[in-house]
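Summary of Year 1 activities. Much of the first year was spent building the evaluation harness for sequence design. The harness presents a backbone, in tokenized form, and records the residue chosen at every position. We chose the following record to illustrate the format because it has been used consistently in internal testing since the harness was completed.
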């Protein structure tokens, strides 16, 4: 525990902001014949699923991400490693699986468990980039930590910004299923005022200013912008709510007796918040309306940032990666929010555009993982990822979307591990499935409502999927060479 306390003491130190060094322009002139470093714009929404225009949703309006997809490559089957904010973010920012980071819940500073890790932005810093964080990138308790550094990692950044908007001040106006509770409870507000007054609007304004500064200085940058929406509470200006009349909202239906077809572990994930299961129709429509409104609001802020990128001319030399930390249920399986091993919670949007992406407008349909971000960005920028990174590069798919990258994607939650192949989703609960299994044929059952595990006709397919899953789990548990791991019982940290 002394080691943990020392780590936390170090994390409390304020990291000094480093500016351009003297003589930078002269150095640039001397090395003018060298290829110019590519910049990175890393955009992450919070709790965003694939209910978006470019992913085929017929109702949700996301014109700016759609525009990004037209000049980049869209990954239609990208999956998180853990359907919860803290573990997922620790995973993709290190390029390692949750069983390697040991971050298996929220409210954890990553260096409590892996003190010598080199994070994705930290790697860019070591290679001469100016790394900036705006908003939420590592775990934050939302909305409690808005305006603070949350559980951020100071070693990752040269500079950080913690925007705080009127959405925080207006919390008393927010409707919640549980009065006074917002972050883990369905809650929403059609707010007065402008986009720019909201926390994410302020984040976009800060990002625009930072891009303008980099355009003038020429300093290579890794700019990470983490928006809070559409995480609960679903807060956005009222005009976005007006785009989605409640009478136009479709509420997913769940077959009678469905829960009885599931293993206890899966059933528990769907019932963990009983006041948010199978909501009354009117309330469900209001919740879905609010979620859609905040998606479109977040998209508008992404659009402001992308417009600035183009106006400064930086778009020609900047790789853009857009994603979320995990998926999200809005009534599917009777469940709302995240923390399941179904497609709704595990699938994430992923669009990559910019230099090195030669298949503009293409779609890669094979399974990929969020741990792959690290090597992909390193490869695009001509950098070498550290040996601890266990993901693979997606660059091949950025040049040829038909190129095979992976045959499966692995996601874990609680005692369960889930394998997603092109056709099947196979999940085991407990060690080697001792707590039961689920098998879904997504070609015939894309909603994953018919559990085929244990059926005689699926015996051979299930055996092969079980073998593949257990192999993937064993690989994801391997300790990367040179990584220090500190194991201790996770303690609940309120703030």
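For this record, the design step produced the sequence shown next.
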């Amino acid at each position: 525990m002394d080691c943990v306390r020392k780590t936390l003491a170090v994390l409390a130190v304020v990291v000094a902001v480093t500016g351009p060094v003297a003589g930078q322009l002269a150095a640039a002139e001397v090395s003018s014949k060298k290829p110019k470093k590519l910049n990175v714009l890393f955009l992450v929404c919070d709790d965003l699923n694939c209910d978006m225009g470019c992913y085929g949703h017929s109702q949700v309006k996301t014109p700016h991400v759609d525009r990004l997809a037209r000049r980049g490559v869209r990954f239609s089957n990208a999956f998180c490693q853990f359907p919860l904010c803290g573990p997922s973010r620790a995973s993709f920012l290190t390029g390692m699986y949750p069983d390697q980071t040991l971050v298996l819940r929220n409210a954890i500073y990553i260096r409590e468990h892996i003190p010598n890790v080199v994070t994705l932005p930290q790697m860019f810093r070591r290679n001469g980039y100016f790394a900036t964080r705006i908003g939420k990138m590592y775990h934050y308790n939302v909305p409690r930590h808005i305006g603070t550094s949350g559980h951020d990692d100071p070693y990752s950044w040269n500079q950080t910004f913690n925007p705080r908007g009127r959405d925080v001040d207006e919390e008393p106006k927010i409707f919640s299923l549980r009065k006074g509770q917002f972050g883990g409870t369905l809650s929403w507000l059609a707010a007065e005022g402008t986009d720019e007054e909201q926390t994410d609007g302020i984040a976009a304004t800060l990002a625009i200013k930072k891009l303008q500064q980099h355009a003038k200085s020429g300093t290579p940058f890794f700019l990470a912008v983490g928006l809070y929406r559409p995480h609960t509470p679903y807060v956005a200006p009222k005009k976005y709510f007006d785009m989605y009349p409640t009478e136009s909202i479709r509420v997913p239906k769940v077959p009678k007796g469905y829960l009885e077809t599931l293993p206890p572990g899966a059933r528990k994930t769907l019932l963990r918040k009983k006041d948010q299961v199978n909501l009354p129709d009117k309330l469900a429509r209001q919740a879905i309306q609010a979620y859609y409104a905040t998606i479109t609001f977040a998209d508008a802020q992404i659009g402001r940032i992308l417009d600035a990128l183009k106006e400064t001319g930086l778009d020609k030399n900047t790789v853009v990666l857009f994603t979320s930390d995990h998926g999200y249920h809005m009534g599917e399986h009777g469940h709302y929010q995240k923390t399941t091993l179904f497609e709704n919670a595990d699938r994430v949007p992923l669009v990559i555009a910019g230099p090195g992406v030669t298949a503009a407008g293409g779609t890669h349909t094979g399974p990929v993982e969020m741990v792959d971000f690290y090597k992909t960005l390193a490869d695009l920028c001509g950098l070498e990822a550290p040996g601890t990174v266990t993901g693979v590069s997606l660059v091949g798919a950025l040049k040829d979307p038909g190129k095979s990258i992976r045959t499966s994607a692995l996601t874990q939650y609680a005692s369960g591990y889930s394998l997603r192949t092109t056709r099947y989703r196979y999940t085991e609960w407990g060690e080697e499935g001792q707590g039961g299994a689920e098998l879904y044929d997504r070609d015939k059952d894309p909603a994953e409502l018919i559990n085929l595990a244990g059926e005689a006709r699926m015996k051979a397919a299930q055996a092969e999927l079980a073998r593949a899953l257990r192999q993937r789990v064993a690989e994801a548990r391997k300790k990367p060479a040179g990584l220090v791991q500190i194991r201790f019982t996770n303690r609940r940290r309120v703030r």
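Residues 148 and 162 are 6 Å apart (CA to CA). Quantitative recovery figures across the full test set are reported in Table 2.
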